[in-house]
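The instructor's notes for this session suggest beginning with a concrete chain rather than abstract definitions. Hand out the sequence below and ask the class to guess, before any prediction is shown, which regions might be ordered.
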Amino acid sequence: MHAFRSPSSGPSPRLSRRTLLALAAAAPLTAAPLAAGPAAAASDVVVGGARLVADGVQVNGGTALPKRLTARAWLLADHDSGEVLASYRAHLRLAPASTLKMLFADTLLDRFERTERYSVTDADLAGIPSGSSLVGVKAGITYTVEQLWQGVFLRSGNDAVQVLARMNGGVAKTVAEMQARAVDLQALDTHVVSPDGYDHKGQLSSAYDLALFARHGLRDADFRAYCGTRAVSFPAGGGKTFRIENTDRLLSGTHGVTPYPGLIGVKNGFTSNAGNTFAGAATRAGRTLVVTVLHPKSGHNAVYEETAALLDWGFAQGGSTRVVGTLVEALSEGGTRASASGGSSGSSAGTAPRAGAQASSAGGGPDGWGVLGGAAGAVALVAGGVYALRRRHRSGALPPATGETPSSTGGAPSAG
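After discussion, reveal the predicted structure:
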């Protein structure tokens, strides 16, 4: 496998107030280097409540959970309140695959206007890992930022991720900012090695952290619109376009999967190491639920089937269940820092196992990047003082792809 190569140059980076606050929040938490590895990085901090780091299914009340849940970890929560309704090994650290692109988007979406244009070069596309999922970005073609994000969300294109990362000042810088953003969101199980979620040693997240990314991302109008887009036309060069469809089968209804009523998005993923991963959200009768499902044991559609079953259960239970934990708020947005003695505000009290202690080592890929890799790089970025505050206020959703309907063609889930 090949790692991304950090570019030596690129457009001037522009950081939002939100990201600068995230980097500042990350600084005191990243003094210890991440080189010790995922297991050593685990701490006694309990995020979201003690029950979420306990082994086994966590649920209070309601009818029996769906049968045949084979995922290695999953979590179901109320989007608005952040209350976790049920979970299984929520803090188990596993390879996230392309669900990590939610963090990439949450970190970079406000850097560039949707209408901004960028001409892609061969250097922009150098070093994309072999076997990556691609949308078909080509050197010599000029794309809008909106089109690149469509490539990220709909086709999980690692080529689109690479171009946006280079526009942001480079892959290593983007990785450091993503790690800092994860710390700000209190996603302490997450270790970022590449911005696309591709298999790299030490690239890990958890069902809990992915739920944090999905919930926070959906508060952004652009994020919500991109992840809910079913199909669009994508530039092919020479004034021509080709059709791209969302690889989220619960949204598109392809490959034998029935579209889930009220589904908003969010992001699916697949690599040979991670297996199938999924974070989804759906609304019914005014209530929105967020669910994450990681590594089901069987069937290429199992991740969607188990997601749909958990959503059905959650909507059916209404107020009959008692919460087992909480999705915490970002530190830069008033969230209470998680503690070692029972979690953050609103979580269950008592001593608990270490969050992320049940680490899974991601296979394949390089050992990581030496330049500003992970959260330690975020500290250096803050210390450098090279960023200006520039917050772009966005409102409204992207227009729907008029007349676009997903087809039933396509192959296996996207890699990376």
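Then share the key points. The two ends are 12 Å apart (CA to CA). Residues 1-42, 341-355, 357-414 have pLDDT under 50 and may be disordered.
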